[in-house]
Amino acid sequence: MRIISGILACVFLALVSLPVVGLVTDLSNRRIEIRYSFDGAELILFGAVGSSAVDPVNDKFDIVVVVRGPEVETVVRRKEKVGIIWINNDELVFPSAPGYYAVAASRKLADIAHPTVFASYGIGFDNLPLIARTDRGLVEPNAEFRAALYRLRAQDDLYRQERDSVTLVAEGLFRTDVFLPANVPVGQFQVETFVFQEGSLKARNRILLSVDKEGFERAAYDFAHEYPFLYGLLAVVVALGAGWFAGVVGKK
Amino acid sequence: MPLYLPIAEISMDIFLVIGMGAIVGFLSGMFGVGGGFLMTPLLIFVGVPPAVAVATESNEITAASVSGALAHWRRQGIDFKMGTVLIAGGSIGSFFGAQVFTYLKSLGQVDLMISLAYVVFLGSVGGLMFWESVRAILRQRRGYRAPRLSREERHKAWIHALPFKMRFRKSKLYISALLPFFIGMFVGVLAAIMGVGGGFVMVPAMIYLLGMPTNVVVGTSLFQIIFVTALTTIFHSVNTQTVDIFLAILLLFGAVVGAQFGARAGLKLKGEYLRVLLAGMVLIVCMKMGYDLAVEPTELYSVAAVAADGAGH
């Protein structure tokens, strides 16, 4: 009973807080294939807002798009000086941190809504519910390590915030580019789109994007991980053959 | 032209990879060394994960050593019996080296171990080689010739006191098999943790410790390196899945071409001068690794995904 009433309460709350706004989005490509020539990908997310609650022709609105990659256990290490050299001497394990996280918006986030609004929907890196695993159990992560995670991933173009913008075309139509760098992790991605108006959320929707190695790349990766001994043997045979070939050709 | 490497999980420019292979191949052809000690740091420097660099370089060295060993075999330059003893030791060394490598990788300390190994071994070998070749050049200028010692004099007494003596006809030696066995084992450990063939340690050890005639030293060491790096490749494949065949093949392609030109360039220089240059190069790599360890890094933090198996599927 409690579950059902809980669900009902949620549905009711959702109906009250989120006026039904027709929001549709789609990606230029829902399935990214990593092949030999993969050097990152650039997708177009396009969508339309159309409903009575938000009159796209007359009312101003804002769009925030959050792309979130697969969650993986991630370790951040810190170097410290031990004797005369710098070595990894401290580490913090995040049992699940997104391998990719991008926020694109039609304006600066600060102009769209109050930070507490973004916090309540978990939009933005600072609002991600990250936890750390330590000897004392799951704890709030050390701020420096958390900042380092963001900084390092941002350097690799894997965390992107306030860098990509959403273009409002006209008549409720909007678009944004989603950049996936070459080192993007494989797995399921969630693409969430939020419609804001006058600082409050009006609509949201979510679509999925999958990134996977394909064809030869997939086969090579699977072979190396599922039959590591045979893979090693193959690597050796290939090397012996190539070396022999080079030796014979080099002699002539 | 970018090429996605499925095991290293990075995208690299194909011409950069072949170019690196060619440059290292040129130098290794010129100096008659394997070049692993140059290629592995270079790969790490351009952004290949250190564990992948080490394991992949083992695979490339196997190929490079086959072509080298073939040439020496045609000239009867391999002592197979000595080689077999060296391989027996090398297999055990490589196995333990790969275990240590896997353990340290899980602790996040494998990069440190690779750097330390480079600093220690390149520093000592490069320093000795530099000193020896500078002395040779100076002596030559003065017209001094070191008196040639007989093999009995060159061998230390403790070497003859070791048990399990064996006769190596090709090397014209009657010594304990333990000595080459342990040399092979030591080289096997280095092969597994540094991504090198280990010729830079094995060749001097064969000449100065074993007293092998120089005409069989290089061929026999290459013969050992083929098998030990092949085993190392398999150990790393099984333990850490860090061998990237495609990267190895591209590097090899560049190296084969570069080595042809390097060998010709090497013929134009005198042996002592080649050795001084080689020693200088070894010391530069060593100092670069040492410098990176000793100077405060601009970024103290590093990030890594754990359990790459789960992440990849």
Quickly give the CATH architecture of the largest domain in chain A.
Sandwich
Q: What's the total number of strands of chain A?
A: 13
Query: Per DSSP, what share of the residues of chain A sits in E-state strands of 2 or more residues?
Result: 35-45%
Domains of chain A, number: 2
Strand order of the largest sheet of chain A: 1-3-11-10-7-4-12-13-2
User: Could you say which overall geometry of chain B the principal axes of the C-alpha atoms support?
Assistant: globular
Low-confidence stretches of chain A: 10-17
Percentage of helical residues of chain B? over 70%
Q: According to CATH, what is the class of the largest domain in chain A?
A: Mainly Beta
Largest interface: A-B, 65 and 62 residues
Helical percentage of chain A: 25-40%
How many domains make up the coordinates of chain B?
1
Strand percentage of chain B lies at 5-15%
